[in-house]
Amino acid sequence: MEKQLHLNLLASRPPMAGFQSGGSKMKMGPGRKRDFTPLLWSQYFETIEDVEVENENGKDIFRLYCSGSSGPVLLLLHGGGHSALSWAVFTAVICSRIHCRVVAMDLRAHGDTKVRNPEDLSADTMAKDVGKVVEALYGESPPPIMMIGHSMGGAIAVHTASANRVPSLLGLCVIDVVEGTAMDALNSMQNFLRSRPKTFKSLENAIEWSVKSGQIRNVESARVSMGGQVKKSEESACDPSVSNSIGEGIMEEEEEEEGAEESNKKRMKEDDQEVKKESFYTWRVELSKTEKYWDGWFRGLSALFLSCSVPKLLLLAGVDRLDKDLTIGQMQGKFQMQVLPQCGHAVHEDAPEKVADALAAFMVRHKFTEFKEGYLC
Q1: What is the band of 12 on the pLDDT scale with cuts at 50, 70, 90?
Q2: Percentage helix, strand, coil, to 5, in the chain?
Q3: Is 176 part of the annotated catalytic residue set?
Q4: pTM
């Protein structure tokens, strides 16, 4: 049971009970039909920037989404398979709370970042990437930086801080990743990844799946962030290798039980025809091919986290995440911890206001910044 709870540490929280892959129906309770149309990044971030960094094999280009003009920089690192867009709603909220600047970064091989060697997702390489991007942005005198990472991004944030690749680091916030439970989950991760749909007939369909499967519980966040997880496929939709489409089988919430099965069969046929006629969407990152790096992301993470000398905040979706080292460290006051219940693994997407409140209070308490005038905490 504990392993099942933590299969989400690389990608997203596993589908809720009741969802079966492979074209089965997903029924929701009665209610109004929700809007799953995509939202633009520009509704949450102020600017978008592509930063070039020199590498051994040439130049790599990293996509950044930015907001704010004064205060410390919040450097945001997303989880495996996600993108900087997973921080969109959180960014809008935190910028209304405190004086800060936000830089949300598409990591190597994720989102719209373009690198010469996208297969190298080792912790060391990605930590170097973060350091090089900071250097490219700010030169030899970077502003104070608070690094915040979710899941895989949390592990990379710890590796980056531990290797002192961000010399102006103020503090470190890690969201829902703990060495013990991550290592326990790795053996089952491939089965979880195989259970996900391989294709979606549209971006709207991908957003709908992410919400109804429980991957992202906040509809607004899913509408802006799923575009960073999936992309239009370059393969033909008629290719026999393209299977396990989720273009079928999600029932609208307002459908009545009576006649629903016949309606669903009709829609499945229509959707199949539509998929063959039009383009479809696939995952941007094949997480199953990154398996050789999983151990390096998480092994020894608790000790590295505790050894970082800056103030630290750990945000978790449940107390069951804590392993022995962190339990002892927390009792000794080596870091601050807050549990945000009723969230899935994507805590900052499910409850962006709660995460922003926790982070704002942490930063103000440590005198890293101040609340904005008129904001009542």
Answers
A1: very low
A2: 40, 15, 45
A3: yes
A4: 0.83
